[in-house]
Specification:
Helix content is 29%, strand content 33%. The protein is of the alpha+beta class and 184 residues long. It has one domain. A hairpin with a 5-residue loop joins strand 6 and strand 7. The two termini are 24 Å apart.
């Protein structure tokens, strides 16, 4: 699932989520399916990541996830602020050819948690994309399937202690000074 800013209702900016799937599966999804969500803020000393999963129709075949990065170079702040302020969220299903074939609008289940995420992110300041990607990598190693991650978040059993990871010693590589990094 990817997301982007677009012009929404009444000309306001809106953040929408695009889900690419085979049309034969999209067609099987009802126009107004039930949905469940889990969401979590993964926060370390220097990085903060907002993660959510949505499952439509109660089937794991329709389980999708997205990571939101406040410091995303293109519109990260705007994306997050839209999600913190809008009452609804649209999921646009696109087929294998990139054509929109179904749109599902839900209440904005991220609104309150996104406000918390923005606050935490602003307190932390800027982080690099590789730091954000390291958080994702760590989580996917710990929970390799969508079902495992869904269950861990839903049951509030997510364990995430990035600050306990070993520090890699800084190495001088000629004119380039390596940054402090953590292995996941």
């Amino acid at each position: 699932m990817i997301f982007a800013n677009t012009e929404g209702k009444e000309g306001q900016d809106e953040t929408v989520f695009y889900i690419r799937d085979d049309e034969k599966y999209i067609d099987k999804l009802p126009d107004k399916p039930s949905y469940e969500i889990v969401k979590h803020i993964f926060s370390s000393k220097n990085v903060c990541a907002f993660f959510f999963m949505v499952r439509f129709g109660g089937h794991n075949d329709y389980l999708y996830d997205a990571w939101v990065n406040y410091n995303l170079i293109y519109d990260g702040h705007k994306l997050c602020k839209n999600l913190a302020n809008h009452d609804t969220v649209r999921f646009i299903f696109v087929n294998e050819y990139g054509r929109a074939v179904k749109i599902i609008e839900t209440i904005n289940f991220m609104k309150d948690k996104m406000k918390d995420y923005i606050k935490i992110s602003e307190e932390k300041g800027f982080w690099e994309m590789y730091q954000f990607d390291n958080v994702k990598k760590y989580i996917y190693q710990k929970y390799p399937t969508g079902k495992e991650l869904w269950s861990a978040i839903k049951d509030k059993k997510v364990k995430y202690k990035i600050n306990d990871l070993p520090e890699v010693k800084t190495k001088n590589t000629g004119n380039i000074q390596a940054k402090k990094v953590y292995y996941f």
